[in-house]
Amino acid sequence: MSVVQARYVQRAIEERFGRLIDLSDIPRRSEHEQALRSRGLAALAVQIEHPCSDLVATQAVFDGQDDRGLDAIAVENRQAQPRITLIQAKWSDKAKAGFGEAEVHKMIRGLDLLIELEFDRFNRRFQRHVRAVEQAFEGRAPRITLALALMRTEPLNDDIRELLESSIAQYNKVEEMVDYKVLDLRDFHRAILGDAAAPKIAATLRLEGFGQETSPYRAMYGTMTVPDIADLYDEHRRGLFARNIRDALDVSDVNPKIRATLLEQPEHFWYFSNGITMLCDSIRPAGRAPVPGGVGEFLVSGASVVNGAQTVSAIYEAHKAMPDVAQQGRVMVRLISLEDCPPEFGDLVTTNTNTQNPIEDRDFKSLDPRQVQLRDDFALQLSLSYVIKRGEPVPNLEHGCSITEAAEALAAAHPNAEFAALAKRDPNALWDDGVYSEIFGLTPNAQRVWRCVLLARRVRARLDALRDELMSRASAMAGYGDLLVTHVVFRLLDTKSIEDPGTDWDARLDQVPGLVKDALSWSLFAIDAEYGKSSHIIAAVRNTERIERVARAAIRGMRDGDTTPELRSDYQMSGEARPGRQVDAVRTLVDAERIPDGTRLEFRPFTRPERRDMTDWLAAEPARSLAVWRNSTRDQLQWQADGQWYSPSGLVRRMRNLASGVDQNVQGTLNWYVPEQGSLRDLAEEVRAEQTVADLFEPEPTPEQ
Questions:
Q1: Each residue's pLDDT tens digit, 631-679
Q2: What contacts 257, CB < 8 A, 6 or more positions away?
Q3: Which of 166, 144, 154, 29 is nearest to 90 (CA)?
Q4: E-assigned strands of 338-445?
C-alpha cells in the first residue's frame, strides 16, 4: 500500500513542481526524474513547515553540489523568535528511503557552517536566502529545526536517532536552539490531500457554566477540566490541530510558563490562561438540551483547535507529569460551529485569533513608576523621548530611545558580563523581576541610561564597519559579539562620572572605535584559546559562564597594555586582497592546469557589502552567477551573462559595478568556486602545498649532475 501512496505523492510533485524545480545543474536527462522527485519532496517539506506558494517552495530548494548536506531552507523572521527550518530530503519509489550516519554528519557540518556565517561555502542557489538568515541571527538566537523529509514509513534506526540527538545536544548547552523532526510518507500524503486528509474528529465535550451565542453564528463557551482536555489530546494528538496555522505538538513548543502555572498554581490556571478556541463542523447536545449556566454535554464533529494549541499541549504534559496536581486546573473553551457560516469564516477565525498581539512581560514594566520617572527625566533633563509602551512610535536615533534598547544597553554595561549574555540569548529575560531590577537599579538615572545607549550604538556602528572586512569566525564575532564587546569597552572607559551632566561624554565616545577593534581581537583570541578554534562563537557570547571568562581575559589583556593579538590571516580580508597575490593565485592555477578547460564556476558573494549589493541582482538572472574557465595567461573566465572573457577579479569588479554602481578593487579569487572543490584561492593554496611537499621530497642532485 505504501508504494501506491508514494506513487500518488510522486504524481502530485511532478504536477505542482515539475516546471518550477531547477534541474539545470544536472547534465544527464536520465537523472532528471529522480532529482525532480527528491527536490520536489524537499519543496513539499518546506510547505508543510512554512506554508507558502509552489514557486516560493521551489526557490527554497538548493539541493546539488555544495549543498553541505542540506537540500532546502525556510526562514521566518518572527518578532518573538526567528525560526529556521533546514531540510534534507530522501526519495524512494518503494517508500524505503535510507538515512544513515553519513547523512547525519553532513547535516551537522552544514549547520555548523550556517551558524558560523560561512555562507560562501554553500552553492549559488542558497545565496538568495543569506540575508534572511543573517537577519535571523542578529537578535535573539533563532529556533532551528532539522527536518528529515524521508519517503519511508519505518521509524529511524535507534542508532541513527541517538547519533542525531547527541549531535544536536552540543547546540543546546546554553538554550534549546536546535531540534529535529522526521516527515515521512504519512505526512507527505496528508499534505498532498490537504483538507481532505485532515481527520474528522468526533468527541463529546463537557462544558461547565456554559453559555452560547446564536447570532450571527452559533457558538458555545464554558469551562473544561484539565483531565478532559488531556484525554482529548491523548486520543487525537496531531489531528486535533488540523486547522491550526502551526502544529504545536513538538515538546519544544510547549510553553514552560503555561505548564508551570498549572503545576504550581492549578487553582489560578483558569484566570491566567487565554483559553482554547475550537472550530467544529457541527455541535449537537448530547441528550436533552442543557440549561445555560449549568453543565452541558455536546457532540462535536470535525473539531479542531485553532487557538490555544500550546495550552492544550502544556495541559497534556503537565497532567502526564503530575496528574494529582494538574487535575485541579480548569480552562475556558469556545466552540464555534461552522454549519451556517460563510465558507471563508473558519479561516478568518483561525487567522485573527492567532495574530492578536499577546501581552509580554515588558508591557508590565511600562507601568513601573521607575520607567514613568525615566520618561519624564528624559524629556525634562535631556529634551529626548523615552518610549516605554509597545506600539508607540520609536523616536529617531538622535531624538531618544525605547525601553527595550535601554535595557539591552544597561545589560551590556553591567559589571557582570552574564547580563550581556542573557540579553543576547533571550531579550525577554531582561524583564524578569530580578534581572530587571539589577540592570535598571532602584533609581534609574536618565544620564546613565542615555549614555549607555549611545555607547552601545557607537560600538555596533564600529563593529558593522569592521565586519565588512572580516571573514569566518571574526565576522561571526563582530555580528554575534556586539554586547560582549560593548561590555569590555564600557569597563575600559572612565565611567565614574557617567551620571554627571557636566561630563564630556562625546570625548569618551571618541575613544570607542580604537577600543572596539582591540576588544574584538582580544575576545576572539580568548575564545579560540579557551574553547578551541572550532567552538561556536554564538555559544561563547550567550553562555553566562563562558562570556564572563572571555570578558575577563579581554579586559585583563587590554588593561595590562599587552600587545593586541593579530587576527589570523583567514579571519580578515588581507594578503589575497593585494593585486599581486590575486595574480599569483591565478597564475599558479593556470601553470599547474589545476582546473580543466571548460569547467563551470559559480560566483558566490563573499563579503557583507557584496551580499547586500548583489544578491537580488544575481537572483534576477541565474547566468550572472556562472562562468566557464580556460587556462590562459589572461582573461580566464567567460561570463555566461554576456559571453565575454575576463580575469576573475576583473569580472567581479564589473559585476559589482553593474549591480550597484560600486567600482573598486575586489578579490575575485575568493568569489569564484569550482563546485565541490573550493574557491580559486582554496585551489591555488592546494597547488602550492602540493608543490612544497614535492620540493621537500625531491632527491638532491649527485655531484656528477
A1: 998 999 999 999 999 999 999 999 999 999 989 888 899 999 999 999 9
A2: none
A3: 154
A4: 385-387, 400-402
What DSSP character marks residue 96? B
Distances (CA, A) of 228 to 205, 287, 428, 459: 8, 19, 33, 54
Q: What is the dihedral of CA 269, 275, 281, 282, to 10 degrees?
A: 60
464 is written with which cell numbers? 558593522
Measuring CA to CA, how many Å separate 695 from each of 586, 683, 688, 689, 690? 21, 18, 10, 10, 9
> What is the grid cell recorded at 700?
638532491
On whether the CB atoms of residues 50 and 111 are closer than 8 A, the answer is: no
Q: What integer best gives the mean pLDDT of the chain?
A: 89
Select from 93, 88, 98 the least CA-distant residue to 6.
93
Rg of the chain taking only CA atoms, in angstroms = 29
**Sequence letter at residue 289:** A
Residues 6 or more apart whose CB falls under 8 angstroms from that of 643 comprise none
Other beta carbons within 10 angstroms of residue 378's beta carbon come to: 23
- C-alpha angle 254-310-269 in degrees, rounded to nearest 5: 100
Q: Check if the beta carbon of residue 673 is closer than 8 Å to that of residue 602.
A: yes
Give the single-character DSSP code of 283: E
| 539: CB partners within 8 A, 6+ apart | 171, 173, 174, 531, 546
User: Are 60 and 43 a contacting pair, CB within 8 Å?
Assistant: yes
Asked if 283 contacts 337 with a C-beta cutoff of 8 angstroms, the reply is yes
512-531 helix and 446-467 helix, angle to the nearest 10 degrees:
70
3-class SS at 73? strand
Alpha carbon distance 103, 288 (integer Å): 59
417 close to 477: Cβ distance less than 8 angstroms = no
The C-alpha angle 214, 220, 222, rounded to 5 degrees, equals 140
Q: What is the DSSP track for 625-674?
A: GEEEE---SS--EEETTT--EE-HHHHHHHHHHHHHS------HHHHEEE
Grid cell at residue 123: 552553492
Grid cell for residue 456: 552601545
Q: How many Cα neighbours within 13 Å face the side chain of 274?
A: 16
Helices (H), 277-355: 309-321, 323-326, 345-355
Asked if residues 114 and 134 have their Cβ atoms less than 8 Å apart, the reply is no
- Window from 295-309, 360-374, 434-448 with minimum mean pLDDT: 360-374
Q: Which amino acid is at 69?
A: G
Amino acid identity of residue 89, one-letter, is: A
Beta bridge partners, 278, equal: 305, 335
The per-residue pLDDT for range 524-579, each reduced to its tens digit, is 999 999 898 888 888 889 889 999 999 999 999 999 888 888 888 777 775 444 44
Looking at the DSSP assignment, which residues form a beta bridge with residue 330?
Answer: 225
Tell me which range, 49-53, 255-259, 333-337, 581-585, is most confidently predicted by mean pLDDT: 333-337
Q: Which residues pair with 359 in a beta bridge?
A: none
Tracing cell 536552539 back to the chain, one arrives at: 177
Distance CA 89, CA 43 (A): 9
What is the rounded distance in angstroms from the CA atom of residue 544 to the CA atom of residue 130? Answer: 29
CA–centroid distance for 337 within its chain: 38
**Alpha-carbon span 110 to 69, nearest angstrom:** 6
User: Length of the chain in residues, anyone?
Assistant: 705
> CA–CA separation, 21 vs 15, rounded Å?
11
